[in-house]
Recover the amino acids of this structure.
């Protein structure tokens, strides 16, 4: 190679090297932040909300507030909503938390353990003390805060929903078959047998989601062993493989073996299970009161007036009672401590004052906030449920409430197999107990 | 050119940037992940040194055993299926369809360019039993047989998975092997035919031995791809029913990202890497031996 060519080569190499180097830097990215929109140390510059794709209720209400009651707060700190599917939500949250880039507010995750970990790591805002400082503590319903406390140990999430769960039934179908709303397990199974014989699918449930089936197992345990049934398991004082625990799984498995859940329950997704009920193709649906928005909607073909609610029935000789309603706070919303500033505080105050009325008025769904607007029209079915809640003595959680992520996944992914008979009740409980590891 | 490659600085300039990028986005995370195997914890709770605990757990964990077994079963069955069907198709292209094969080749190749999730949704609908029967169950009903809940039991779910993945990939292997078959000199075939070889004898004595190198490449491709199966399982069965169709990759993903146990997840990843390595070495060795003989 001649000297001139070498020099030319060298000259052309210099920008190439520089370009490659710059490219490498861009690619390897010292890209801090990522998904977060936090400013430099002084809190959020946008009111970002990471929502579950499947749950649009909270996002809809916040959007409504941003153009209505909370317009001033929204002008100061604009609301920005991003969605993440429920199945990958915990992963996304962990990723953002690991990068210290949590959004301003976000759904608290699928398992309470994740929010507890975030809180232990100092990443969550203490809602109770913040609300005390803001002077809006009275806007939180005591029943909702106590449910949050029993889930997370302290009030670290906003109760955007306050749900009770139980069996919703199609009044017309029950009447046509001479069935009264069941209050005991035997009445329920008799009703199911009558319905099956009459060619009506007794229960609609999503085996793809799994939890609508494991909820039945959990409730059966609360009725037979008592409200502390699963606390005992969490504390290591009892095992899911104990005979009285396996009995619950066996009872639910029997519903499946009798064919009460219809065909292909493992492939039924959440929406399909809801549609099966609201199109009159199934008599019972175990679901939480968040479904009120679907029941009160125009798409409900059987009409809200045709739907009734009973608590999970008593089991003969059991310690629990059907006055103990299964309760949860739906999709609680946690707040990033790092993102908190005065403007976020203003937004939270506005949410506290207006969320209850907006949720009830727009969606017909009960939230954990007080309803500070007497003019809100409450749909009759919602009002009926409100009465049931007021009459209930106590609340219980759900089957997986005190489990970690792994046991929760195992429980929910194997639920369909339990009712299709692919695994025995003993095997089901063994699988879940193995993941609890105590 | 020799001058350029003889110049160390030039080599550095040409290879350096690529090597740097490769190191930063491939080697560093791999080594990082290797380091994680000695720790327990997550990005939220922090990491704690746990020595070889993760490895001890790996060997006693029934979930890993189940996932490993599924992975191997899937890899073997699918490799055999993909390569056999692909080979049969390539023979069809070369010996029967000949010049008219381009349309068939294109059609059979088409599924490989479709997104896996789309194909999975298609198969979910085809094999659906509820809320309404899919086309497969409708077909079964025609013969008076009851509908089957394909995704309700491990065996049938596995069957659907295998059928879907073979359908998806057979076109690719057919084209790969077709290229190999085209390389067989026409004179050799011609002289074999003159010697009286025809049909099966021709395939067994001439075609198979002469297309062995490309056949082995296909097997390596296939087994390494199938050992790392992830997207089609996630989209079609999500590892279910229960955990019966959960391969090591999905278990690793769930352990690390859903359960937040990065250390144990990395340990499962290491196991998968070792298996891939062993399989590749095994196949390379046997292929080298065969080639020297041939």
């Amino acid at each position: 190679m001649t000297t001139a060519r070498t020099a030319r080569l060298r000259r052309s190499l210099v920008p190439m090297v520089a370009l490659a180097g710059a490219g490498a830097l861009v690619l390897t990215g010292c890209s801090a932040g990522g998904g977060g929109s936090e400013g430099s140390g002084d809190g959020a510059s946008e009111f970002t909300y990471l929502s579950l794709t499947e749950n649009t209720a909270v996002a809809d209400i916040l959007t409504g507030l941003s153009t209505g009651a909370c317009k001033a707060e929204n002008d100061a700190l604009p609301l920005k909503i991003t969605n993440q599917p429920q199945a990958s939500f915990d992963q996304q949250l962990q990723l953002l938390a690991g990068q210290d880039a949590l959004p301003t507010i976000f759904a608290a995750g699928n398992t309470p353990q994740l929010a507890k970990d975030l809180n232990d790591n100092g990443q969550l805002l203490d809602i109770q003390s913040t609300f005390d400082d803001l002077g809006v503590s009275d806007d939180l319903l005591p029943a909702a805060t106590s449910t949050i406390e029993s889930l997370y140990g302290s009030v670290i999430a906003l109760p955007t929903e306050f749900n009770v769960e139980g069996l919703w039934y199609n009044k017309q179908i029950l009447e046509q078959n001479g069935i009264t709303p069941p209050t005991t397990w035997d009445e329920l199974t008799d009703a199911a047998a009558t319905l099956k014989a009459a060619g009506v699918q007794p229960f609609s449930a999503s085996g793809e989601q799994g939890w609508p089936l494991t909820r039945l197992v959990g409730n059966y345990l609360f009725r037979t062993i008592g409200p502390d049934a699963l606390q005992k398991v969490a504390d290591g004082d009892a095992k899911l493989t104990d005979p009285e625990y396996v009995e619950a799984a066996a009872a639910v498995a029997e519903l499946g073996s009798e064919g009460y859940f219809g065909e292909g329950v493992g492939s039924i997704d959440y929406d399909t299970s809801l549609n099966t009920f609201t199109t009159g193709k199934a008599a019972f649906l175990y679901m939480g009161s968040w479904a009120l928005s679907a029941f009160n909607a125009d798409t409900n073909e059987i009409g809200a007036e045709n739907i009734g609610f009973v608590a999970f029935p008593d089991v003969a000789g059991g310690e629990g009672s059907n006055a103990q309603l299964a309760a949860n706070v739906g999709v609680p919303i946690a707040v990033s401590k790092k993102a908190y500033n005065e403007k976020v505080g203003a937004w939270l105050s506005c949410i506290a004052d207006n969320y209850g009325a907006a949720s009830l008025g727009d969606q017909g769904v009960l939230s954990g906030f007080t309803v500070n607007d007497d003019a809100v029209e409450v749909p009759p079915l919602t009002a009926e449920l409100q009465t049931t809640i007021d009459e209930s003595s106590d609340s219980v959680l759900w089957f997986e409430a005190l489990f970690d992520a792994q046991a929760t996944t195992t429980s929910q992914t194997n639920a369909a197999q339990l009712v299709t008979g692919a695994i025995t009740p003993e095997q089901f409980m063994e699988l879940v107990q193995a993941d609890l590891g105590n | 050119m020799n001058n350029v490659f003889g110049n160390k600085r030039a080599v550095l300039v040409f290879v350096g940037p690529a090597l740097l990028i490769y190191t930063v986005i491939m080697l560093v995370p791999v080594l990082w992940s290797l380091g994680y195997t000695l720790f327990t914890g997550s990005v939220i709770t922090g990491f704690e040194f746990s020595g070889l605990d993760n490895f001890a757990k790996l060997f006693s964990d029934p979930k890993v055993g189940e996932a490993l077994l599924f992975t191997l079963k899937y890899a073997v069955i699918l490799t055999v299926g993909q390569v056999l069907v692909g080979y049969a198709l390539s023979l069809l292209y070369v010996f029967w369809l000949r010049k008219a094969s381009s349309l068939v080749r294109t059609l059979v190749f088409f599924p490989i360019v479709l997104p896996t999730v789309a194909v999975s949704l298609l198969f979910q609908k085809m094999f659906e039993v509820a809320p309404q029967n899919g086309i497969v169950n409708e077909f079964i009903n025609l013969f008076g047989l009851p509908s089957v809940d394909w995704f309700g039991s491990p065996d049938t779910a596995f069957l659907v998975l295998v059928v879907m993945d073979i359908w998806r990939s057979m076109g690719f292997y057919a084209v790969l092997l077709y290229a190999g078959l085209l390389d067989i000199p026409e004179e050799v075939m011609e002289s074999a035919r003159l010697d009286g070889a025809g049909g099966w004898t021709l395939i067994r004595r001439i075609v198979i031995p002469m297309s062995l190198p490309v056949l082995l490449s296909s097997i390596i491709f296939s087994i390494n791809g199938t050992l790392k199966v992830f997207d089609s399982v996630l989209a079609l069965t999500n590892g279910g029913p229960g955990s019966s169709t959960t391969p090591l990759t999905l278990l690793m993903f769930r352990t690390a990202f859903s359960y937040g146990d990065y250390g144990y997840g990395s340990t499962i990843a290491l196991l998968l890497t070792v298996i891939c390595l062993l399989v590749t070495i095994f196949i390379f060795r046997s292929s080298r031996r065969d080639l020297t003989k041939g």
